[in-house]
Amino acid sequence: MEFKRIPPHRTHAQNRVGDKPLTKGLIIGGVVIGTLFILVAPLAIIFIQAFSAGAAVYAQNLKDPATLHAIWLTVLTAIVVVPINIGFGIAAAWAVTRFEFFGKNLLITLIEIPFSVSPIIAGVAYLFVYGAQGLFGPTLEELGIKIMFAVPAIFLASMFVTAPFVARELIPLMQVQGSDDEEAALSLGAPGWRMFLFITLPNVKWALLYGAILCNARVMGEFGAVSVVSGNIRNVTNTLPLHIELLYHDYNAVGAFAAATVLASLAVVTILARAWVERYDEGRAEVKKRMRPGGH
After folding, report:
1. pLDDT, tens digit, 9 for 90 and up, residues 157-201
2. Integer Cα distance of 168 and 122 in angstroms
3. Partner of 255 at 20 to 30 A CA spacing, among 155, 178, 189, 206?
4. What is the pTM of this model?
5. What is the CATH classification number for the domain harbouring 63?
6. What is the DSSP string of 203-243?
């Protein structure tokens, strides 16, 4: 016997916004037009302007030594920062979801501070801590250690702005999953490291990969904090976003757009990777299910 789903009856006063055809069309049309003009058009202009002088000029701009150095420094920053923040995110999620201690909610709030603080403010704060006139500046100078306006400052600023990305993905998932599987493994005699490698990590692998993708994209595109602490020195501390600004100020618009295509391509790859991870991330679906009213 086949059952047909009967739609819920609504009175005229219970209609949602957009249930009427005209309103629905206006909302959908407004969103589509806004997406095209605000998001798609600027991305399209980047590639159109980059190739406006021909493919040969585009390739020549990308082969410029300053551009290649900026790309290399951006990749190096991601290679250093992303693994550190993955480790921090795993440790933070483990501490918050597996231990009870005073100030746990405060710790969660502190981890998410970079989401609410302007990157410019973060860069200025690092200047006051590690700069020549900062808190540790004189001591670092005596030891011959240079952090500000050097590559280490880029690493520090990038770590600050991307610190919450992995932790924020892991904490809600590990709270929903609980520790039953881990307790079972320990009760069967599994060592702690073996339990972590073969029980905990497989359970959170998609959320971990998702957070790492977002962290990597933000590291490569970070501008504000890095511009304050790096000194923006060409061929020394110039990451790709800073190099694009320099090229634009040099009236080399085609070169700036050519360099921008690298970041735009990275954004497209990130979106595709994110969609792929979301497709297989059953844990994310479980978290969303539990967060719905009446979810179990």
Report:
1. 999 999 999 999 999 988 888 888 888 888 887 788 888 888 888
2. 20
3. 155
4. 0.81
5. 1.10.3720.10
6. HHHHHHHHHHHHHHHHHHH--HHHHHHH---TTTS--HHHH
